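Help! Submission page says 'invalid entity' but I think these are all valid:
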Amino acid sequence: MSRLRAAAALDVEGALKQVEAAIAQAVDCQEPLLRQMVAELVRAGGKRMRPRIALLAFDACGGGEADLDKVVDAAAAFELIHTASLVHDDIIDQSPLRRGRPTVHVSYGTPHAIVAGDFLFTQGFALSGRLPKEVIRVTAEACVRLAEGEVMEQRLLAEEVDEESYLTIIAKKTAEPIRACAMTGALLAGAPKEVVEALGHYGLEIGIAFQIADDVLDIAGNPAETGKAVGQDAKTGVLTLPVGLNEAGTDPGWDAKTFRSMARQTDPEELRRLLQETGAIDKARGVAQKYSDRAKARLAVLPPGPSKDALVALADSVVKRRS
Amino acid sequence: MSRLRAAAALDVEGALKQVEAAIAQAVDCQEPLLRQMVAELVRAGGKRMRPRIALLAFDACGGGEADLDKVVDAAAAFELIHTASLVHDDIIDQSPLRRGRPTVHVSYGTPHAIVAGDFLFTQGFALSGRLPKEVIRVTAEACVRLAEGEVMEQRLLAEEVDEESYLTIIAKKTAEPIRACAMTGALLAGAPKEVVEALGHYGLEIGIAFQIADDVLDIAGNPAETGKAVGQDAKTGVLTLPVGLNEAGTDPGWDAKTFRSMARQTDPEELRRLLQETGAIDKARGVAQKYSDRAKARLAVLPPGPSKDALVALADSVVKRRS
């Protein structure tokens, strides 16, 4: 039976090509400079994790050929909205590099980067606007959480950040949109409410695991593999889990605020050495693993099959990635 | 008959209160600082021209009570998207004042202002996402034109701008969204295609007239009435119709580029005097009047009634306004 299902299953790589085509079509426009900016962004690619999750969730929930166009549009919409948020995020964080290339605001200036992000948001919503109301609602809800997470992060730059606030921020900024992708795949497959909810939890939890892993890479990653400058978060004062979990942070003589201020001024290599020695990086990896394990457990509601296996593998890969 | 119709007509002021309630509900969120920023923006108000046009077009096309909730949602969506674009526009143009108050990026910093704009875009699209697909399409199309207009304007800052480019930019940036409002009102009233198109032209043309009048106010307006600093466009190098139509601009010895560079460095009072003397301001007012007249002529497709009269009055008021 597992073999039969495998034979009938969705060609995920083929569907991802359809997603690329939908994205390319969505970003076409009448203004040459805008077209050039967004074409470079789209060509630069990325992991396409969000489209993959939407497609896998759709297939794992038994979505049929008749609704494939819808999940392709939804997957493209999520990727467009994600790219929009990265462009604006890079302005906010003053990041010089993304995927190994200069960020849009560095290449084209902040005014153009703001508009390029707005355009990608618009095109994402335009695609999602063709979908059922419930999908539009889930998408918009995720975008609201995203904006809340951005403001909360900036607001807490000036204050103490504890583990709970950190987790709330990354849930809103990273995990809620991934939750929306997984739920949308299940919704478009016509899955029952409890399955949609379980896929939503899966998305939320791998999203949290993914972001912790990302924050670990910010300190312990290899720039040649990540395509990003090292220690960017520490430099801009964003307190992440690996930094916050430092032993020193619990020492009343050297509190988290002092540590953050130190982290901002310390050479990235020195910071990495310090956090490795105190075991902070391993501890953060452990928290990511916990969320990845929880995510996998949510998939118990699904029947066996290649897309379920791929969702399990994805939950493993987010904590093991090097880029 | 006109009287009967008047008695049955839409209570526009009452419907505008419903629009305010829909906006207030849409901008509620979990992040206190974000809630505060957008509440201030919404409270600061504005002309609410876009909601008014959507409601009047709906009523003038015979829209009924059953679809009132839809046009209220659409009107709120347009106002939210408009406010979002103003917040981002003020960052791009580095405007210090809007509606007599410090702009969001001045009060809260650029990072928060970017996110506040994204949040308002999201909530606008979320509201519009509840509406018929055709309305979503028209809304998204207008937002794409808006982004194109922004980039085109910035791109042409470094080049010659002729009257045609200026009109294309203001059509995209200001008039296309107003066109979408008028079309949406007609669409939700179930008007036939040619009426929807005529209302679209009306919106486009009063939008162009409105923007020319706005650009005249930038130079010749009273800051106590406009709530904006004088000569802001000239200072940032944006070449508008009143500046471009200066006699000097047609003198080969003093081309538009030279004039623009001069305008950027000249004291606002001196610039106003110069443009009044050469008749440039009166000429720009004449162009605005031409578009206003064209817009009014489009309304011939509508039956007589108070909302049609109000649309005519609106086309008159956009060229006569002082703020």
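Support: the input was valid. A stray whitespace character was the problem, and the output above is from the cleaned input. Chain A has one domain: 2-309.
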